[in-house]
Specification:
By secondary structure, this protein is of the alpha+beta class. Helix content is about 35%, strand content about 30%.
Length: about 260
């Protein structure tokens, strides 16, 4: 795992150049969805993922790879690298530094290693069995979630409350109205701030595995809890709840249960 951990840093380093090249520039934005919907992609997304995939295929040609932009390479290996080259492309094209390069590693379907790299702010969050860490300006510091058992004292976050379906929106509103503070539009950065103890609860729906794979080890190694809304594994995405406190997580699951899928 130490070898994979060091290699994940190399992958994040490789993605930095293309990720930064187009940030706050007038880059062409394409829409991956049809009329009336918007899922943006840029050259930064594609070039960053290609840089990561090239390194993996060179170092570990027998490993599986799944990325948002170039799909899945299946080899039958127990190891799978899961990549979101620019998580938060909407923030990226708006010039907001709350996007990140996500690199996750699964072993037999279980998340074991994660990196969230924000090269513009020079922040890199990592998570593994050895702990959760923030690397910044040459310094490495262990990070942890904070204790917050009461929803009335909690800071919560979701990317956009209007992304929830009507039933999900009802249960989210119950949590929002009870919570102390709400922050929106942070994508992967919200999960990193939860791991650092700045946010207490992140609630999302409709996520892909590449949206969450890298973040699971970071949160869990920091002492947090992350699951789907049924309390099961978050590894496949879907409806996701991340919390810094176990009691808070249980309370939020009770509220979310009526809108649980599957």
């Amino acid at each position: 795992m130490e070898e994979f951990y060091n290699f994940a840093h190399r992958l994040a380093n490789a993605a930095q150049k293309p990720a930064l090249k187009y940030f706050r520039q007038r880059v062409e934005v394409q829409n991956k969805l049809g009329r009336g919907e918007f899922d943006p992609v840029t050259l930064a997304d594609r070039q960053a993922e290609q840089a990561i995939r090239t390194l993996i295929e060179s170092q570990y040609p027998d490993h599986n790879i799944r990325g948002e932009e170039f799909g899945e390479k299946q080899t039958g290996s127990e190891w799978k690298w899961i990549i979101d080259p620019i998580d938060g492309t909407r923030a990226y094209i708006s010039g907001l530094p709350v996007w990140g390069v996500l690199i996750g590693l699964y072993n037999n379907g279980q998340p074991v290693l994660g990196v969230m790299d924000q090269p513009f702010t020079n922040e890199r969050f990592t998570g593994s069995a050895n702990g959760s860490f923030l690397y910044q300006n040459g310094h490495k510091a262990q990070i942890s979630t904070r204790s917050c058992s009461a929803l009335s004292s909690a800071t919560i976050s979701t990317t956009d409350p209007y992304l929830f379906n009507p039933q999900e929106r009802i249960v989210f509103e119950t949590i929002r109205e009870t919570s102390r503070l709400q922050r929106y539009g942070l994508d992967c950065y919200a999960y990193s701030m939860l791991a650092m103890g700045g946010i207490d609860l992140v609630i999302e729906s409709g996520l892909q595995d590449y949206d969450i794979a890298a973040l699971i080890p970071i949160i869990e190694a920091a002492g947090g809890i992350i699951s789907n809304w049924s309390g099961g594994s978050a590894a496949k995405g879907g409806q996701i709840l991340a919390s810094g406190d176990l009691q808070l997580h249980k309370s939020a699951l009770e509220i979310l249960r009526p809108a649980t899928k599957g």
